[in-house]
Amino acid sequence: MLSTRRDRRICCGLRWGVSMLLILLLIVFSAGPLWAHHGGHKHVLILHSYHPGLAWTDGIMAGIQEAFAEKSEDFQLHVEYLDTRRYQNSAYFSAILNAILHDKLEDRSFDLVLLSDNEALNFVLGHRDNLFGKTPIVFCGINNFNPSMISGFRGFTGVAESPAYGETFELALRLHP
């Protein structure tokens, strides 16, 4: 049970974000010619910025799994967690993220890459050509998003996390003058 207003806000925001991600997934799924593999499994990489067990990440993952469960096609999901909330030093980024993930993903071909949060987007932007080529990228939960972040890259779409502070205060004052 949600005990605080903050928990309820997080839950509502999470539901909104997952709903927007599901809409984007439906758009991507309707673009059949984008899929690289014809027949067999469609391989989807899900790259999370944070770790499993974090409510935000788990909620996004649940929404993704629900969306794929509703599809009649055969998808193979590959899930990676960057764990950047717990490990933030540059040695981790260069040694673990760049070397190990690069080694894990380098010989794989994906039909779609789904990203949650900024660090996953930054990783993909840094390794797009080497690891993902022209694979479509769908992101969600990007803070302080600016279209210039993905300028020069094709095949990117997603949902930015853009709080509407002014509108929220106006609504709060209207509801509780």
Q: Which residues form runs of ≥5 with pLDDT under 50?
A: 29-38
The amount of helix comes to 40-55%
- In whole angstroms, how far apart are the ends? 28 Å
Record the strand order, biggest sheet. 2-1-3-4-5
Q: How many β-strand runs? A: 5
Please state the overall shape, judged from the principal axes of the Cα atoms. Answer: globular
What is the SS-derived class? alpha/beta
| Largest beta-sheet characterization | 5 strands, parallel
Number of helices: 5
Overall radius of gyration? 17 Å
Strand content: 15-25%
3D architecture notes:
With 177 residues, the chain is of the alpha/beta class. The protein is 46% helix and 18% strand. It has 5 helices and 5 strands; from the N terminus they run αβαβαβαββα. It has helices spanning 5-29, 55-69, 90-105, 118-132, 165-175; strands at 42-48, 75-81, 112-116, 137-143, 156-161. Strand 3, helix 4 (118-132) and strand 4 (137-143) form a beta-alpha-beta unit. Helix 1 (5-29) runs parallel beside helix 2 (55-69). The longest helix is centred in the first third of the chain and has 25 residues, at 5-29.
Question: Which helices and strands appear, and what pairs or packs with what?
Answer:
Layout: H1 5-29, E1 42-48, H2 55-69, E2 75-81, H3 90-105, E3 112-116, H4 118-132, E4 137-143, E5 156-161, H5 165-175
Helix pairs in contact: 1-2
